Amino acid sequence: xxxxxxxxxxxxxxxxxxxxxxxxxxxxxxxxxxxxxxxxxxxxxxxxxxxxxxxxxxxxxxxxxxxxxxxxxxxxxxxxxxxxxxxxxxxxxxxxxxxxxxxxxxxxxxxxxxxxxxxxxxxxxxxxxxxxxxxxxxxxxxxxxxxxxxxxxxxxxxxxxxxxxxxxxxxxxxxxxxxxxxxxxxxxxxxxxxxxxxxxxxxxxxxxxxxxxxxxxxxxxxxxxxxxxxxxxxxxxxxxxxxxxxxxxxxxxxxxxxxxxxxxxxxxxxxxxxxxxxxxxxxxxxxxxxxxxxxxxxxxxxxxxxxxxxxxxxxxxxxxxxxxxxxxxxxxxxxxxxxxxxxxxxxxxxxxxxxxxxxxxxxxxxxxx
Amino acid sequence: xxxxxxxxxxxxxxxxxxxxxxxxxxxxxxxxxxxxxxxxxxxxxxxxxxxxxxxxxxxxxxxxxxxxxxxxxxxxxxxxxxxxxxxxxxxxxxxxxxxxxxxxxxxxxxxxxxxxxxxxxxxxxxxxxxxxxxxxxxxxxxxxxxxxxxxxxxxxxxxxxxxxxxxxxxxxxxxxxxxxxxxxxxxxxxxxxxxxxxxxxxxxxxxxxxxxxxxxxxxxxxxxxxxxxxxxxxxxxxxxxxxxxxxxxxxxxxxxxxxxxxxxxxxxxxxxxxxxxxxxxxxxxxxxxxxxxxxxxxxxxxxxxxxxxxxxxxxxxxxxxxxxxxxxxxxxxxxxxxxxxxxxxxxxxxxxxxxxxxxxxxxxxxxxxxxxxxxxxxxxxxxxxxxxxxxxxxxxxxxxxxxxxxxxxxxxxxxxxxxxxxxxxxxxxxxxxxxxxxxxxxxxxxxxxxxxxxxxxxxxxxxxxxxxxxxxxxxxxxxxxxxxxxxxxxxxxxxxxxxxxxxxxxxxxxxxxxxxxxx
Lengths: 369, 519
What we know:
The structure holds 2 protein chains of 2 kinds. Chain A is an alpha/beta fold. In chain A, 33% of the residues lie in helices and 23% in strands. The radius of gyration of chain A is 21 Å and the shape is globular. By secondary structure, chain B is an alpha/beta fold. Chain B folds into 4 domains: 61 residues, no CATH class; 231 residues, 3-Layer(aba) Sandwich (Aspartate Aminotransferase, domain 2), CATH 3.40.640.10; 117 residues, Alpha-Beta Complex (Aspartate Aminotransferase, domain 1); 29 residues, no CATH class. Chain B is built from 16 helices and 11 strands. A 7-stranded mixed β-sheet of chain B has the order 1-7-6-5-4-2-3, with helices on both faces. A two-stranded antiparallel sheet of chain B has the order 8-9. Chain B has a two-stranded antiparallel sheet with strand order 10-11. In chain B, α11 crosses α14. The model of chain B has no long low-confidence stretch (mean pLDDT 93). β16 of chain A pairs parallel with β3 of chain B, so a sheet runs across the interface.
């Protein structure tokens, strides 16, 4: 019998309802409560679990006590295995401990209800050892590990557990500085990758074939880029699983989250910050290879801030190579890519159209705003 | 007969047979026909009929064909036919992009007459003047309809015609010494075969996404074209049913960098007699005779993709082309830059004849009337669908559409969890097809409806009533829709093996091997 882990971060999302842009830390939680904030995440978890009603006899749910899952799971008519203990008011350490316990319980999939902060805690606890999926219930949802809505999270969980969806991809966990965010400054770092189930929407088989899976698409993109690489040029390779596939194709050792520099198909340096990048590419002809980061289509300014306005100025717009899988682009449903470098002039320079490499000898022209 | 009743989806119950694959029905030694022994007198004249075959062409083992009697074969295929929905069985307007118009039976009678079926492609030209005349005159009709200079009927369907277009594009640039042109531009709402054919011929494919209103984006095109552009391949109107009003600007931009423009007019049903490829600036175009010109859909063949080109490209067409010297019709193989043959012989003659008969029946005004009625029908449906809860028509708000519309169930899915796939299954319970979209699903939860000119208002209302009924169920009793089909052939296709090279199988032999049932 398949085992599903469920963790609810009961305080996630509470700050948002009362205009606090997040609920990270006990002081903010206190403030949120004083403003009349009510728990929200349990309702979101319930919406997801409802989609699993037909699995009642086929899956076993493992969860944490009371507000961290037990209450919701029981109210949905499941009889969960409850593990661990929690205090009256939960914190990040409870989420982390719960996720570690779920991993020990060898759950096939770990569903969690929360926001970006919760995703970071889950990542800290399980890394890429467990397949997870986020039920969006937080204030900030910049990470790509969340389903588009709770019902979809439940459906996708079901499809994965029954074996209909089998592909697993690495999706970005973003680290948004909440104090800055509250001041309307968005500083996002790429924090890590969690493994999530991935479903390509199928078309009816009778009239068209299936789209290629994510791994194949990334391989095809990497092959295209590597074949077109010139020995005269330096290549800055930004973060992202699609860009990192290029480095793997070159059999180089890359940084997981950072920016790397390649010349003559060899690694010059890895995990460079802005200053080092500028030093390295000074007076050299350089191409910049980037891919949208996170779930919202940000090309620059979320998780790749090392590639600063000064780096972009040095490289030049025409030397930017954008890569992305068609699935990633199509998941935007026509919404343009986004730019937020923090510098208005640079943003304006980058707005407009980019040619995006989407496969071997395949590209699209796509708008960026 | 006029009825005042509210239109409603009718009850329907389809046959469901527990039917095996024909290979599983095979019984060793069972035969449909027992072939008689050759008579001595005949053998004396022509030999035994088989030993004339060279030794190395003879099978050592007989082919693994099913062994089955006539009666059981007949029953098998009748069972299967009862489990299908055909164009003559239902209101077939839910297969958008397919252009499911009525194919008049009289045209079919002509096409299956022995005068046609007994023709042999190697007969002397003097004995097939009538057939050649029909092909030549259909060429003349299509020249008038498109503004092109010469057509070939050799391509065996739409994708085959696209591949022939790309071959001509390549040959043309090679001829002019412009071998560096290695990019072909298309749009995401053009048929996927436009991109696929370009890729098959080794081109890099650049795909344009639409602007906010769903129109092909001229600014994106300007970004895409360069001296490396070999051609633009584009559909218009696209699958959204939106006509690109800047199409002449598109072709002008491509011509300015030296590229050619190929028009995918597989379905020209909404613009017959209204707009032409020439005036839009195209260098070539093709029509699927089974879509626009009513020769029946063959479900994978036999079909014809009638491909026409402008004067400058005439010499690149596949050979032979059909000519008339004022007295007789003949096959001309003498084109200096021909791309050669793209298919055996001259085209699928029954399809060519059906299209010829259809055009002759309608005349020029009739063709335009067909287009007008198809557009009118489509816009009536557009209005009716937009009234259905949970349905929407993304893009081009407040505008009319041409011959089809790509709609969305996004709102319905958000409110009920019912997807477009669920709805297509439930529609089958009322005897209707409903098709979603080509890949990729740019429009979320897509569905595509194209009524053509063939259906009456009553029939369209019946189809709309079917949609309404399913949507009511989606909101009231979603589990019913989720578990559909209920009264159609009760099964769902397991698509999980389609992406798995270890499991997918397109032949019985491969199925046995990959699913552990082979030797």
